[in-house]
Amino acid sequence: MISIAKKELHQFFNGLTGYITIILFLVVNGIYLFVLKDSNIFDFGYATLDKFFNLASWIFIFLIPALAMRSFSEEYKTGTFEILQTRPLTKWQIVLGKYFAVLSVILIALLPTLLYVFTIHALSAAGGIDTGGITGSYIGLIFLAAVFAAISMWCSGLTSNAVIAFLIGAFACLILYFGFNSISKLPVFSGNADYYIEMLGIDFHYRSISRGVVDSRDVIYFLSIIFLFLFAAQKNLSKK
């Protein structure tokens, strides 16, 4: 598993993929948070990073599928998957190796954003920020990245076309993130049903952790979704 992860990370950073991912993530956030007039946190008047965490979830919906789309589809297309199968590795080791490589790139991209926390804290007129809420939001963002990476890995294993894998991955992330929340607002589900339908969506649990309280139910939900899609990705390899 470690050898697969190292190989994937080497490919990410030996070319431009890893660097473009990190730079694009930081540039988009920087422009939105510090340059654009309507979203500039300096003009907002409150020491909060809510705008960053809301934007980051949207960026991840498209950025992570783009990062993971070649994980298996490229192996199928070039025929290297057959070579990979000859190595003394289980299907789970292959899946987890590629998964942790994608997740590592996302975590590296998140590290520079800690400067936002120190900047807001230093500029806060009241002398402090909501540390608990920001910590919870970062934990939620890491779980969100982990879920989107698992979904994207599964989608990459469905086809040998990387572009199709990206489109399916982005659509799946978008539906699982916002879909259940939108369905719960339909009049037919008014009453108690709307709450339970909304609980099925990723957005509900991400917002819950972002409040600063790490509930075991939210953690179990995220870990279950991650396992489900990684298990499905492993099953895809077994079929191949």
UniProtKB/TrEMBL annotation:
Subcellular location: Cell membrane
PANTHER family on file: MEMBRANE COMPONENT OF ABC TRANSPORTER YHHJ-RELATED, MULTIDRUG ABC TRANSPORTER PERMEASE YBHS-RELATED
InterPro entries: ABC-2_transporter_component, Motility-assoc_ABC_perm_GldF
One Pfam family of this chain: ABC2_membrane_2
Gene: gldF
Membrane topology, record value: Multi-pass membrane protein
One MF term in the entry's GO annotations: ABC-type transporter activity
Keywords in alphabetical order: Cell membrane, Membrane, Transmembrane, Transmembrane helix
Lineage start: Bacteria, Pseudomonadati, Bacteroidota, Chitinophagia, Chitinophagales
Sequence intervals crossing the membrane: 12-35, 55-73, 94-118, 138-155, 162-180, 219-237
Identification of the protein by name: Gliding motility-associated ABC transporter permease subunit GldF
One GO cellular component, as annotated: plasma membrane
Keyword Transmembrane helix on entry: yes
Signal peptide: none
